[in-house]
Every structure is written in C-alpha cells, then in structure tokens.
Design a protein that fits this description.
- By secondary structure, the chain is an alpha+beta fold.
- The protein has helices at 37-40, 49-63, 90-100, 109-121, 139-150, 153-163, 165-175, 203-206, 226-245, 249-269, 298-301, 307-318, 353-364, 369-389, 425-434; strands at 4-6, 13-15, 43-45, 66-67, 78-79, 87-89, 129-131, 192-194, 198-200, 223-224, 271-272, 277-278, 280-282, 288-289, 408-409, 412-413, 437-441, 446-449, 458-465, 468-474, 479-484, 488-492, 495-499, 502-507.
- It has a domain at 132-305: Glycosyltransferase.
- The longest helix is centred in the middle third of the chain and has 21 residues, at 249-269.
- The strands form 9 sheets. The protein has a 5-stranded antiparallel β-sheet, with no helix packed on it.
- Helices cover 36% and strands 17% of the residues.
Length: 508
C-alpha cells in the first residue's frame, strides 16, 4: 500500500513512497527522436524527487511523439499529439511548441507548424489532414513565445516579412464564413465572422468539444464566443511586438491599432458588470450567456482587462465553488448545472493542461504570481498522483476535477501518453512556476527568477536559450551559484545581477 498524506498547503496528495515506477514510451515505427535528446533538456534541481522524476518521465513520453511522418509531409520530423494517425491539430501543435522550446534541436515544435501553415496558406498537398482548420488561432502567440526564448530573428523575418503566415491567418480568421472548405481538411469550417462584433463557433472547432456554452441562448450559433475574439486580440498584440522586434515600426503601429480596436470591443460587449466576468454574448441582443468556462481567461492573456477586471476574474478563479479548490481550473465552473463532478466528462469540468497553462500565464500578466504558482503546484501534484495510482502509469489527455484520475470522454477513459499538450504541466509549469523561472529571454539576454527561499535547494542546470547555456542553483541558505558560457542578466525577485562567462556567486 502506498503511503500518502494530504497537504494542508495545497490540498493535494503528496506521495511519500518509493521512486516512480519505470515507464517506457511506446515506440512508434515512425519515431525519430534525436539520440542525444537527454543531453539537451534542462535539468531541474528540486527537493521533491518525485516531481523531478515525473519531469523526466514526461520528456520520455514526449520523445516517443517525435515522428518522421508519411512521405511528402512539409516538415519532418514533427511533434505528434497522439490522437489520430492521419490528422494533426492546430491548437495541440501550438501548445506543444511551449514545452518543446526548452529542447528545440531535438523536439521540433515550431517546425511542426509548417505542417499547418503550408497546407492552409500555400495550399500545399499534405498526407496529414488538418483536423478543424478553424481551431483556436494561436500561431502568433506561440511564435512570439518561441522568439523570446530563442531570439531567432531569421525565423521571425521569414514568418512576418517573407511568408506572412501570421498576418494571413489573422486576416482569414477575421473574415471566415461557415461552410468554407479547405482541401487539407476533412471538415468544412464552423467558424463564422459576425462583422466587428466577433464570431460564432462550435465546441469542436473551439477545441472545447462538449462544452455547454450557448445553452441558454439556443445553441452554439446563437452566441459570440469570447475566446475567439480574445485570441484574435492576442494575435494582433503579438504580431505588433514581433514587428517591433524586427524594427518594422509602421507595421507594429498598424497591428497595435488593430489590437486596441479588439480590446475596446471585448470590454464593451463581453464584460458582464453584474458578475464581474467575461462571458459569451447572444447575437440577438448582446446579453451575457452566463455559462462560466475557463475560456473566459483568454481576455486576460491578451491583456485587454483592466486591473480591476483582472482582480474580479482572479476572485472567480480562486473560488472553490467555481474554478478554485484542491483541483483548480476545471473547464466548466463547479456552480454550473452541467458540471460533471466525478470525472469532468471532458469539457464539462475536466482539467486540461492547455487551458490551465493559458490561465496561469494570463493571471501572471497582472502580477498574481502566488496564485499562479499555487495552481501550478496543485495541478502537477494531481498529474503525479494519477501517474502513481493509475495504470498504465502515464500522462493523460485531461484530468478529473475531483480526484487524482483521468477524465472521461463519452463514458470512456481519456487518452494515455498524451505528451501532447499535457506535458505542459510536468515540464513547463514545473520550470516556470514550481522552480520559478518566469521569463527566459534570449532577445534581451535575461532570466527572471521568482526564487522561493523556503523551498530549500533548487534551481536549474543546462538551461539553454539562444546561444547561452547556464546552471542556476540556490543552495537553500543564501547563495546562488551560476555557471554560464556567456554573460546575461539574472533578475532574482526584482533585483538585477550581472552574470559573467564562467562561474558567478551571488549572495542574496
């Protein structure tokens, strides 16, 4: 019997037994991971051995998802989300970029995006169909995150100046009409642009398959979806920032104007003053459709909310009757009549790492770091407990909002080995929120660390960004030891320290 106890701090189960049972990722005949990938990944230092073990197990599973794919694929190898053999997803692939960036030579995150850009915007023939071309438009966001981390201006120049994929996708999404057909996709699109007010969407196209959104307005097509317009605002903001990084001031100004227009529209139409929450709204009379879902945190990631609006949204997020509690960020608020307590029934309460990651990053934009870190630690603890307790011992597509177990889809347990976007927990949230490395910027040659002195010895080794490789470790007492192959700025709890090539000792 495994020895467990309940943490009074997080409300989650801490595991005190032997090291994690071994896991061997399923080897697919098309698997083609770089043999030396283990030398490239960052190495976490943390007193919780089991979280560190889960980090490494997750990379092992993700390594099994690096595929060469069928002949004729625009980009090979690529990251496979582990769902259908003959199809790929836009938003799955985008979210995988956000952990693959930590080992980009071995894990082809941004390269995988070419399997979407080229069929959609160049009409390239592809053997892998794009499942739902009208998936969330996240390309600009993840490209900016990748650029910040790597400083790769050559890719940025190709994307924005030469191919203009990001601008093309923004403009296509803005004018999309339901029923439009793409040769690269098995489905007609469901997205429909309703002028400047926003978009109608569906559960599947939005990525939230069986969500009850639109329930009280007569269905999906009777409401404007708050996430769709917010993701467009996020894209415009990110394109503006990247244009500025390339020195294209006029283009940056144009995209900032686009962003401000969307920001104003979101706050005018989608903000419900009565409840202090962003909601979908009815097309007919622009009234809130009060089905409270995790999608309402996209406006915060796009930074369209005021400080007061963000404060209200965080109150809802931390409320255990809504999105808080021991198992935070369910996809549907616990107060909703369609909330499925036991398993979450996929998007009727299931905890999903992509929307959890988005929400955590969204509230961090407004300085809610303690809340963000607490959510991250609870969610990773749930993933760890599910790994230990459930067979097969693996990472799941999504999780129950009431226990350490996977969620269900149509009554069946959800997909295993989902690394895939569920790797965002044990890898990205572990690095960024548990270890505290909030921002790593090759463009600025800067690492921003929210160091927690009460955590004991912790840090990271073999962190690579741009051309820099560094070890950063706090000894648990008062000294940070840094080793680097180049100089950069290390910002520890808002204090700036200069790191030189070689070894640096910082006394806090």
């Amino acid at each position: 019997m495994m020895n467990t106890k309940l943490s009074a701090i997080t409300g989650s189960v801490l595991l005190l037994s032997a090291p994690l049972q071994g896991f061997s990722a399923t080897t697919h005949p098309d698997s083609c991971i770089n043999r030396d990938w283990k030398k490239e990944i960052p190495l976490p230092v943390h007193p919780n051995r089991e979280m560190v073990d889960l980090y490494h197990k997750t990379w092992e599973i993700a390594a099994g998802r690096v595929r060469k794919g069928p002949e004729g694929l625009p980009a090979s190898p690529y990251m496979d989300e582990n769902c259908y053999e003959d199809q790929i997803w836009i938003w799955d692939t985008c979210f995988m970029v956000l952990f693959a960036k930590y080992a980009p030579r071995s894990f082809p995150g941004v390269e995988s995006l070419d399997n979407l850009y080229k069929p959609v915007h160049e009409k390239a023939v592809t053997p892998l169909k794009v499942h739902l071309v009208d998936n969330p438009p996240l390309f600009a966001w993840v490209e900016k995150e990748y650029f910040d981390f790597t400083g790769d201006k050559n890719r940025l120049d190709d994307l924005l100046n030469k191919k203009q994929y990001l601008q093309k996708h923004f403009n296509w999404f803005a004018q999309a009409k339901s029923g439009e057909r793409f040769a690269c996709s098995p489905q007609n699109i469901h997205l429909n642009s309703i002028g400047a007010d926003g978009f109608t969407w569906t559960g599947g196209a939005s990525g939230m398959d069986n969500t009850p959104r639109g329930r009280d307005a007569g269905g999906y097509r009777n409401v404007l979806w708050v996430d769709a317009i917010s993701q467009q605002a996020l894209s415009a903001r990110c394109i503006a920032d990247m244009e500025q990084a390339l020195g294209n001031a006029d283009e940056a100004k144009k995209w900032n104007i686009e962003y401000e227009a969307l920001k104003n529209k979101i706050n005018h139409l989608y903000w419900d003053k009565k409840e202090g929450f962003y909601y979908d709204v009815t097309i007919s009379d622009k009234q809130p459709c009060r089905v409270k879902t995790i999608a309402s945190y996209w406006p915060l990631l796009a930074q369209v909310a005021s400080r007061e609006q963000a404060q209200s949204m965080v109150r809802h997020l931390m409320n255990p009757e809504e999105f808080g509690g021991s198992y935070p960020t369910p996809s549907l608020a616990r107060s909703d009549k369609d909330y499925h307590h036991q398993t979450g029934d996929y998007w009727r309460g299931g905890i999903w790492l992509p929307t959890t990651y988005m929400t955590i990053k969204a509230i961090e934009k407004y300085g809610y770091h303690e809340e963000a870190d607490a959510i991250a630690e609870k969610v990773i603890s749930q993933q760890l407990a599910a790994y230990r307790n459930i067979e097969p011992h693996t990472i799941w597509e999504c999780y129950s909002p009431s226990g350490n177990a996977p969620s269900t889809e149509h009554g069946r347990r959800v997909r295993p080995e989902f690394c895939g976007w569920s790797a965002l927990g044990p890898i990205s949230l572990f690095i960024e929120n548990v270890l505290g490395f909030k921002e790593v910027s090759a463009a600025r040659k800067e690492v921003r660390w929210r160091l927690k002195k009460n955590k004991g010895r912790h840090g990271i080794k073999n962190l690579r960004f741009g051309g820099i490789a560094t070890d950063i470790v706090f000894d648990g007492k008062g000294t940070v030891s840094v080793r680097s192959n180049a100089s950069y700025s290390l910002i520890i709890n808002d204090s700036n320290y200069s790191v030189k090539k070689g070894d640096t000792e910082i006394q806090l």
